[in-house]
Amino acid sequence: MNKDWSTCTYFWFTAPVVGIIAVLSVIFPTQVANMFATAGEVIYTLGDWFIMWVPCVILILCFWVAFSPLGKKKLGGEDAQPEFSLFSWISMLFTAGIGVGIIFYGPLEGIWHLMYGNLSKLEYLTPTERAHNAMSTAVWLWGVPAWAFYTISGVVVAYFAYNKHTPFTMSAPIQMAFSNHKWNNWVSKLTMCLTIITVGISLASSLAMAAGQINGGLRYILGMPTLQITPWILLAIFITYSLISVTPINKGMKTLSDWTIIVALLIMAFVFLTGPTRYFMMTFVESIYNAAIGSVEHSFRLFIFDEDRYWINWFSMSYWIWWIGWTPFMGIFIAKVSKGRTFGEMVMYSIFVPAGFILLWFSIFSGFGILETVKGSGKLAEIAGGNYQETIYAMLDMFPLSWLTKPVLAILFLAFVTTTIVSGCISLGIMTGKDGINASKPKILIWGTFMSAIALPFVLSGRIEGIKAVGSLAGAPYMFCFFILIAAFLKMVRRDFRERSL
Predict the structure, then answer these.
(1) Are the beta carbons of 417 and 237 closer than 8 angstroms?
(2) Cα Rg of the chain (Å, integer)
(3) What was the pLDDT predicted at 1?
(4) Dihedral pair phi/psi, residue 401, rounded to 5°
(5) Torsion on CA atoms 220, 222, 228, 229, rounded to nearest 10
(6) SS3 of 74, please?
(7) Average pLDDT of the chain to the nearest whole number
(8) CA distance 417 to 168
(9) Distance between CA 421 and CA 451 in Å, rounded?
């Protein structure tokens, strides 16, 4: 095997790149936001024919892992015991991966697909059929396929780290699996560099999203339509996640994740019980069908002859690349917190528990948004087309005790984004630390600072295209590394099967 660079060396190669982007974001916020949005549009237009069906393939691969002999193997050896309770483990998996997004897009996703999606423009569809399609699209983009991306990345990292005793890095699988190939040395190093840069940049999208949403909440709650304090909110978020990041996982991250998921469950249960409960249950049942069957149909529908393909680019395409951009830090984080679990457990719990929660969440929040648009006053749709960050707060106004639930929701945004950024900072601290196993606290703080700086232009502009672009554009070059890592995993597993060590 070619000798890999030390993880500290990677820091000195990648930190200047991310740091330069961070500095430019602070000095030229408008230009940087426009650059990301333009570049994202080009990538989405060129890659749709390939990316759209990849989630289905990844999901099949995850099932294969779960039900193969590998699925019965424990991470860390047969005597390894889980470090966290089942609830805490699932809470960390969920809140690290997609938390802030489901609140931000909760009521918006269904309304936007209903109002602007490609399917909504088909004249022969009835309003009811458009509503069904909107809900089906939302479930497809946020459900099982998204978690399959994260899970397979965790499987790859865990397999090499626990079974082959490599560091928790993205270069180690390539170094080991392709040791006889001349190209493996530079490809593994390039993969590691792209991994670090991708995580450092893509997580800025969550920061921008959360800061804007908290500002929108304060604006709506206080009745101050011109309130614009998002830079200060970003600073508050930065201080919060910096403090949590340097706290041991079993204290800071675990505690925050537990309480975050409990509060999210309470808000969801409150809306479920005080709203049209029967309608929510019917929507949830249909969502299960859409997740199982509709996802395949959506994955192979490209709207080839549609003149306006804005929607498929800025939603379907941007989401998939966005999720891939998050796989490096999610893979490392899932592997780190899953010691003592079997590969089968990791696959099934990492996919279906969070995805099941999301199906219920979107059935309630997006489902209500669609219902209010189709059969109600249309107020939520009007807000979603303008000050969209206020949509979920306006929705809570339609339920009892909104004076309590609205501020709690704003705090929940802070908690969700904190857990996401903390997991990313910890992963970066591991990848650029001294040994590739333990996180470097000074570097955790450096990466956290860079993320906030990159988020600044999108906080100032408020452009949803810019927020999505910074999240997904960083994942585009890493996408090829993602496939190489899967190839490395399959090669080594096949060798183990042949040697009957599995």
Answers:
(1) yes
(2) 22
(3) 46
(4) 55, 35
(5) -120
(6) strand
(7) 83
(8) 24
(9) 9
User: Distance of alpha carbon 488 from its chain centroid, rounded?
Assistant: 24
Distance between alpha carbon 49 and the CA centroid of its chain, in Å?
A: 22
Q: Which phi and psi angles does 106 have, rounded to 5°?
A: -40, -70
Q: What average pLDDT does this structure show over 92-107?
A: 73
pLDDT digits (tens, 9 = 90+) for 333-366: 888 888 899 999 999 998 888 888 889 999 999 9
Question: Tokens standing for 11?
Answer: 């820091």
pLDDT of residue 289 exceeding 90, the answer is no
Closest CA to 220 of 368, 383, 111, 399: 383
Q: Please, which pLDDT band fits residue 263 given cuts at 50, 70 and 90?
A: confident
Q: Which residues contact 90 (CB under 8 A, 6 or more apart)?
A: 261, 349, 353, 354
Tell me phi and psi for residue 183, to 5 degrees: -80, -10
Measure Cα distances from 189 to 13, 273, 457, 482 in Å. 10, 52, 30, 14
Q: Tell me, what DSSP letter sits at residue 117?
A: S
Per the CB < 8 A criterion, the answer to whether 303 and 118 are in contact is yes
151's tokens: 């899970």
Give the tens place of pLDDT for each residue, 141-194: 888 888 899 899 999 999 999 888 888 888 889 989 998 888 888 888 888 888
- Per cent of the chain over pLDDT 90 is 19
Q: How far apart are CA 208 and CA 231, in angstroms?
A: 9
Q: b/e map of 223-244 (b: 16 or more CB within 10 Å)?
A: eeeeeeebeebbeebbebbbeb
- Contact present, 448 and 238 (Cβ < 8 Å): yes
CA–CA distance from 420 to each of 97, 160, 494 (Å)?
Answer: 6, 24, 34
The answer to whether 437 and 430 are in contact (CB under 8 A) is yes
CA dist., res. 495 & res. 491, Å (int): 6
* pLDDT in the model for residue 293: 81
State yes or no: pLDDT of 490 exceeds 90: yes
